[in-house]
């Protein structure tokens, strides 16, 4: 990001006052994630899209490892010409990031030559390489699923001796824990291998359109590549299939709005063969399609559908009712595909030369080739793999609780991964010596203190940005994914004051609707959404697709035109305004609002 002339500034990191009751929060995170004195000279913004809550100690890995992988792919493998990687810092439990730009024209030119050779190899062999990626990521998921927490009995299994394995089972405690961390790191490298190239292709096309058609809106560019059938929608499709089965088996009356999943399952168990058939279909759909987090895969407590059935069961009453009424629940993919063709042809016709038209065709073709990956990878990486990863870490926590080191399994997430290793070494030694673990008096007070700190930090209002304002925000990926532009910064600084009844953001998906607001600040509250409400939230996750069928529109604090909320809303043909920065602060549940997805404006109607 460009450096500022220093006239206007957000609070500097060093100026942020300590949060009362949260003293010592820094010990939850590694030294390299803390702000340094020289960081006051740089512009940072709060990544509330991926980290909308305080990050517990173990979950600090979910920023450290992704940024390690994103930067390596962008800066070192594919040599993106104008940007290196993203640096992150922790402040009061929140993640702040900055993108490191390349500004020297000679260096940009050198990097461009390397980028064309390296990225060109991927773009030119995309389908084959993507197929190989698919095999790699599925192998990685099988590997994390196969990791076991060793059972430590009175004696090791006889087979360990007769098979001359050569090491006792306590050795596997740290080896298998390490395996989880190493696989998580490898997954993120695989994750960003294609992702940044996908964004890269879109950024180039986006830049071309903005130059060729100065009046074009961000949403119009996005709609030229919309209407893709991607894996991230498959979990929702499975719910619709189950709803259809419920109607055919005459079980529709079991699915009532607001019902607890346990009650629904119990009622189905009493419905003879029909109930048994539906429950069998549910079990079949669960693996792998319920390995989808209610968040975005960055927090251990954002449980998957497999761990907590609230979200999928919140969608069933509506789906069952619609299917019983003969409605078609398929997403309007065909209509979107026709619309994207019409828009593309209209803009293409405005180009003056055959060379410009050929360039437009080539860039748009590449975008449509690479775009499905941008959404599909999420299911395999942030959801399926990460659900399994957190389940495995929780299983190590269970062992630590059973051995008396921790009070409960989830306490493991209040230790940094290096501290978990120490706690596991304690078990290794106690089992080997016949002694007693010493960790209870060491770790339990630390965990209790950190829980208290996380609670204290939860009440802190994180500034949207820190440090001097850049002359210009010129990182297109930051703009499209996070919605952070010069205009956003202006709004954050209060330079673009709107009246108290208006919230402005990005026009992410077209249409105008009025409805009653449902403000959700925590993803685990998603089951509260009722039919026809307007969802207002900090950020949405792709796994919220099932509730998109119930709501009239979506409004989010964070996100650009290529954020997941924007993409999902367009696929569902539903108005959306994203990147408002302040919707959850200005709007309350029960407020009547008008959402204008054409202009990016949300109006409180009183």
From TrEMBL:
Listed InterPro entries: PEP-util_enz_mobile_dom, PEP_Utilizing_Enz, Phosphohistidine_dom_sf
Sequence ranges assigned to domain PEP-utilising enzyme mobile in this UniProt record: 530-600
Coiled-coil ranges (or none): none
Pfam families reported for this sequence: PEP-utilizers
Tree of life domain: Bacteria
NCBIfam families xref list: PRK08296.1-3, PRK08296.1-5
Protein name as catalogued: PEP-utilizing enzyme
Native organism: Geodermatophilus maliterrae
């Amino acid at each position: 990001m460009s450096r500022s002339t220093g006239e206007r500034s957000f609070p500097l990191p060093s100026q942020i006052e300590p949060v009362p009751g949260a003293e010592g929060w820094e010990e939850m995170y590694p030294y390299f994630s803390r702000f340094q004195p020289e960081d006051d000279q740089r512009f940072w913004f709060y990544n509330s899209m991926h980290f909308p809550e305080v990050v517990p100690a173990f979950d600090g890995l979910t920023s450290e490892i992704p940024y390690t992988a994103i930067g390596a792919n962008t800066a070192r493998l594919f040599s993106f010409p104008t940007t290196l990687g993203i640096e992150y810092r922790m402040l009061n439990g929140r993640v702040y990031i900055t993108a490191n730009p390349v500004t020297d024209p000679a260096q940009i030119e050198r990097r461009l030559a390397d980028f064309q050779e390296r990225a060109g190899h991927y773009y030119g062999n995309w389908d084959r390489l993507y197929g190989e990626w698919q095999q790699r990521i599925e192998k990685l998921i099988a590997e994390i699923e196969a990791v076991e927490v060793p059972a430590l009995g009175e004696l090791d299994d006889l087979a360990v001796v007769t098979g001359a394995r050569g090491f006792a089972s306590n050795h596997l405690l740290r080896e298998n824990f390490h395996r989880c961390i190493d696989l998580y790191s490898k997954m993120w490298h695989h994750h960003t291998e294609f992702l940044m190239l996908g964004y890269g292709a879109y950024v180039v096309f986006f830049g071309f359109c903005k130059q060729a058609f100065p009046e074009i809106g961000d949403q119009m560019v996005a709609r030229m590549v919309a209407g893709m059938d991607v894996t991230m929608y498959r979990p929702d499709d499975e719910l619709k299939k189950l709803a259809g089965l419920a109607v055919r088996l005459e079980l529709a009356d079991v699915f009532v709005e607001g019902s607890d999943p346990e009650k629904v399952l119990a009622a189905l168990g009493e419905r003879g063969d029909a109930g048994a058939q539906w429950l069998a279909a549910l079990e079949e759909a669960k693996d792998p399609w319920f390995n989808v987090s209610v968040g975005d895969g960055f927090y251990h407590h954002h449980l998957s559908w497999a761990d907590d059935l609230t979200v999928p069961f919140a969608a069933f009453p509506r789906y069952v009712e619609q299917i019983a009424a003969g409605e078609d629940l398929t997403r309007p993919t065909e209509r979107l595909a026709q619309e994207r063709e019409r828009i593309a042809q209209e803009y293409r016709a405005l180009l003056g030369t055959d060379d410009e038209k050929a360039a437009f065709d080539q860039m748009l073709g590449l975008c449509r080739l690479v775009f499905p990956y941008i959404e599909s990878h999420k299911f395999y990486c942030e959801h399926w793999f990460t659900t399994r990863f957190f389940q495995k870490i929780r299983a190590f926590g269970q062992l630590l609780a059973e051995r008396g080191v921790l009070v409960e399994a989830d306490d493991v997430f209040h230790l940094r991964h290096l501290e978990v290793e120490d706690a596991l070494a304690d078990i290794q030694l106690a089992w080997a010596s016949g002694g007693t673990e010493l960790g209870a008096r060491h770790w339990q007070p630390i965990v209790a203190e950190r829980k208290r700190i996380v609670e204290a930090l939860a009440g802190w209002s994180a500034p949207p940005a820190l440090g001097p304002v850049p002359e210009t925000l010129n990182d297109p990926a930051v703009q499209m994914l996070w919605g952070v532009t010069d205009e956003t910064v202006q709004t954050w600084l209060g330079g673009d004051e709107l009246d108290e009844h208006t919230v402005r953001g990005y026009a992410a998906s077209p249409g105008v609707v009025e409805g009653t607001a449902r403000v959700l600040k925590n993803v685990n509250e998603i089951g509260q959404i009722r039919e026809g409400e307007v969802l207002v939230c900090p950020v949405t996750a792709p796994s919220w697709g099932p509730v998109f069928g119930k709501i009239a529109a979506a409004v989010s604090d964070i996100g650009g035109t290529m954020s997941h909320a924007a993409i999902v809303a367009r696929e569902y043909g539903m108005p959306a305004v994203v990147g408002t920065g302040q919707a959850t602060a200005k709007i309350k549940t029960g407020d009547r609002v008008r959402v204008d997805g054409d202009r990016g404006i949300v109006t409180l109607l009183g």
